[in-house]
Write a structure and sequence with these properties.
- By secondary structure, the chain is mainly α.
- It contains 12 helices and no strands.
- α3 crosses α9 and α6 packs antiparallel against α9.
Length: 279
């Protein structure tokens, strides 16, 4: 895969490239939100409760007088952290296991696939709730739970790609030349399954934002004083008829971020394989 050519194709996909710019901006916000926010996101101002959007508080204030704009910016940290961990754990654990299973096959592959099928039989959010409940309620444990539930998907994808590549002539040639299994998996199989893994990672990133927000909404994710978009929705739910804008802004942030992840995933898939655009 030629990364320069893929990037040039991605630039031509305007919606996908715009989504990439937004996601990079979101990462920037998550890194420097503490220095950018105009107000302390946890600072209460009982004299400024439930203010409508104005020149001082751009998104208004909540039931404790906290600046909603500042809280939305800080909430990007939980979203980005969840997305990155949801990709990192499957890449480190799931992909190598999938390659091993697909390369060696036999009883190893049978046992592996039965375990993967068992995990995938559970709904993602239900499994995440169970893992978070077992590990303890915190943002870190929620991120670990998200990474665990995504691991079987990456493992199955890596296994399927490995099953195809291991029969290629260049792999057989490497075996004949005396290359060991580890060398073949690292030098020949892993680089050639990278493209679908990248596409899967982009879609998993956006899905992780939804799962993290859902866990936080249910009280199983980020805990105060940590700010997350799902936690903001939970707090705003009881005020929906008093100040509905409290739900609108974090909800829109989740929506835009998820759409950006999906659009970028579509774009990177087309950039890697232009024939996908015609289908």
């Amino acid at each position: 895969m030629h990364f320069r050519l893929v990037f040039q194709r991605l630039v031509n996909e305007r919606l996908a490239f715009a989504s990439l710019i937004y996601l990079l901006f979101l990462v920037f916000l998550s890194l420097f939100a503490r220095f950018i926010v105009p107000f302390d996101p946890e600072a209460q101002d009982l004299a400024s409760i439930m203010l409508a959007p104005n020149g001082t508080h751009w998104f208004g204030t909540d039931e404790l007088g906290r600046d909603i704009f500042s809280r939305v910016l800080m909430g990007s940290q939980a979203a980005i952290q969840a997305g990155l961990v949801a990709i990192l754990i499957p890449l480190v654990v799931g992909v190598p296991l999938g390659i091993l299973s697909g390369y060696f096959g036999g009883i190893v592959d049978d046992i592996f696939m039965r375990v993967v099928d068992a995990i995938l039989s559970f709904p993602a959010i239900l499994l995440a709730l169970g893992i978070t409940g077992a590990l303890g309620v915190s943002l870190m444990n929620a991120m670990i739970a998200i990474g665990i539930i995504f691991t079987p998907q990456f493992a199955r994808l890596a296994r399927g790609q490995t099953l195809q590549i291991r029969r290629e002539p260049y792999v057989e040639a490497a075996k004949i030349s005396g290359a060991g299994p580890l060398w073949i998996m690292v030098k020949h199989i892993n680089p050639n399954i990278l493209s679908p893994i990248i596409v899967q990672a982009s879609f998993s990133f956006s899905l992780a934002i939804i799962v993290e927000a859902s866990l936080s909404f249910l009280g199983m994710g980020a805990q105060s004083p940590q700010v997350s978009w799902g936690g903001m929705l939970q707090q705003a739910y009881s005020m929906i008829f008093v100040n509905p804008l409290m739900m609108v802004f974090p909800g829109v942030a989740i929506l835009i971020s998820v759409l950006a992840g999906n659009f970028f995933g579509d774009g990177i898939r087309i950039a890697i394989d232009p024939k996908m655009k015609r289908t």
